[in-house]
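Task 17 of the worksheet. Students: predict the tertiary structure of the chain below and write it out as structure tokens. Keep your answer in the requested format; marks are given for formatting as well as content.
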Amino acid sequence: MRLLTFARFRGKKGMIGYEAVMTIVRTLMLVFTLISLVMVANFFIERHVDTRFIESHVAMNYAYYSSTGLAYQDPKIERVYAGLIDSGKGPIDGSFDFGASLASRAVVSLPGSEREFYYEETLFKDWDFLYRAGLTKGVGGVSKVGVARKLPLLEGGSIKTADVKLEVVSRND
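Model answer:
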């Protein structure tokens, strides 16, 4: 369609071969330029935009507000009370499934108890060791984000407010 409209503006019945080739070359150059701009923007985003803090909050929201997380769920009507943490809830082996999309490793600590819930416990402990050893810079290093939030905690039938802590460890890839 572009070739026909270009010929119409020129006032001719058709394009000569040179104009047709040059139109194709111009179109290919435009496509190449646009693809190059997208690649440069993607490179900038990967190198300079740090999403670890946001990712830790996503993991925290999953653990605190999801029915498969620590949120209280009424056993009779199966309603989830988002934000009300059930201290008696949690996986027996202490490991949470935060979903396949979480690229970091996490641990949730409940106050007043020794219970900790891990997302990939082995990797979390390995990466936490690297963080405590001071390997925080460059590729191969790790970074750690800790988030604590005051949330209502259901413990033994009574509700109290407590600091629930989440730590997320990420590799610097």
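Marker's comment: The radius of gyration is 27 Å. The chain has a mean pLDDT of 75.
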